[in-house]
Amino acid sequence: MTDLECLIVWLKTYDGYDILGSCQVDYTDQIPNQGFVFPQGLVEVERREDILGNVTLTDRYNFGLYFTFEKALQDDTAARANASWVMDFQRWVQEQSARGLVPNFGNTETKATAQAQNGTLYSAEDSGTALYMAVLSVTFKRKIEN
């Protein structure tokens, strides 16, 4: 299983995920109740080398997560429900991280950590949909033997 597939499988364990009909990669549409994952690449956060030339990397994957929900213009009730969903999702990621349940994309015993932040309304359409966004980061360690 690829790292991206592993991440999507993990995201689907969120209790609120059942509201989303599917999870697509690098694509969004205006169909309500859909989730979208946009990989934003790998960042090397830290590099340490021991006296034998072995390298331990702290890496971070970043993802843009987009969620399309129903929301008519001026519909405060739907807006509150959608914003609450996004905030609850962010708390779930935080709890998963604290419990050590985040997928570990590394090859060390160090547990991966995750943060979902900046959940916000990205856009609202006249068609009655709203696109919400959060940034998901997963930090993990990899060891490369010399």
Q: Hey, roughly how much beta strand do the residues contain? A: 35-45%
Cα-atom Rg, whole angstroms?
17 Å
Outline type: elongated
Q: What's the total number of strands?
A: 5
Helix-strand sequence: HEEEHEE
Name the structural class: alpha+beta
Mean model confidence by pLDDT = 90
Low-confidence segments: none
In the sheet with the most strands, the strands line up as 1-2-3-5-4
Structure in words:
The chain is α+β, with helices and mostly antiparallel strands and 146 residues long. It has helices at residues 3-11, 76-98, and strands at 23-25, 34-49, 55-70, 113-124, 129-144. It starts with a helix and ends with a strand. The model has no long low-confidence stretch (mean pLDDT 90).
Architecture blueprint of SSEs:
Elements: H1 3-11, E1 23-25, E2 34-49, E3 55-70, H2 76-98, E4 113-124, E5 129-144
Parallel strand pairs: 1-2
Antiparallel strand pairs: 2-3, 3-5, 4-5
